[in-house]
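User: I'm putting together a teaching handout on how sequence relates to shape, and I'd like one worked example. Could you take beta-N-acetylhexosaminidase from Spirosoma arboris, show the sequence you're using, and then write out its predicted structure as tokens right after it?

Assistant: Happy to. First the sequence, then the structure tokens directly below it.
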Amino acid sequence: MARLFFPLIAFVFALLATPSVAQTKLDSLLPIRGFCIAAPQPKQLDTFIKFINEELAPRQVNTLILRVDFNYEFDSHPELRDSIALSKRDVKKLVKVCRQHNIRLIPQINLLGHQSWASKTTNLLRVYPEFDETPEVKMPEKYVWPNPDGLYCKSYCPLHPGVHAVVFALVDEICDAFETDAFHAGMDEVFYIGHEKCPRCSGRDKAELFAGEVNIIRDHLAQKNRKLWIWGDRLIDGKTTGIGLWEGSFNNTYRAIDLIAKDVMICDWHYERPDQTAVYFATKGLSVITCPWRKPGFAILQTQDMIKFRKSVTPVMKDRFQGMMQTVWSGAGPFLDEFYGVKVNTEAGDDTPSSCFKAMFGEIKRLSEAN
């Protein structure tokens, strides 16, 4: 009896582990179907896990990027923790639920840029002010844009001799905690780089500085077979394309596109127009994901474009068009309140992240069933 029973059990488990025809079809249509949001605070964890179970999994989301930054009880640098932060036990709950649903879980810590916000310096430069690319630029009591200093967000100096020992300790620890094979380094909207008053960076080529930072992070991750993901805006010529200084670069970092490793995953975000720059990244040899935010109509067009790109190019190019990812730029709590109708912004109408999320994944489902 045992001879029959155990092979039968093995067959059942193998059958359960085999992707369905529908799943294989969806993976062929869009290999990556992602969702990116700030990591929840501990009090929001149960609701967020409910959201994964009841909303992400049924929509066949297979990649979840959580913007962690300092929302974790780091052991390597406890001085950089947020005052309220996820514990290792909390993170393991996220790992478990994502594994149950075959969702690839990727943490993000903003590297290089976004080391401040509005009038607040965030944890890295607050604790280690010597890493600041522009220490002479003081944080204002009331932030406005534009301003005489050109201050949007602070950056760390990529050539400071001590900065990578600190940030790589954080990167390694969070990657281990999330049991991940990839890491998102942010690196968007870097306005301060190669600053004229920086004793290390002044006079250096800003494209080479940016590419150097991308590659050193990429090479560090590669030592443990992990892949680097970044936002793509600094690699687009904002002036020539007319895309502007937010979704593109006005400080010449865009030339770094020819200097970075080709296995870096590009998250190409466009929120006010459905710009087709995914084609640009793919022709440069980079894999790319298109990322909408709060415009449902644009998200539908971008989804259609991504599938059209995959169908209309050479086999070599096809694999570079990797898919779609909904982005959310609030905390997890406000998004969940919006999604579940606890707090609704009536002035926004349909132009909300939750509406965009539903529209994008609704279109993915429609196109999958139609193909």
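A couple of points you could highlight for students: The longest strand covers residues 104-111. The two ends are 45 Å apart (CA to CA).
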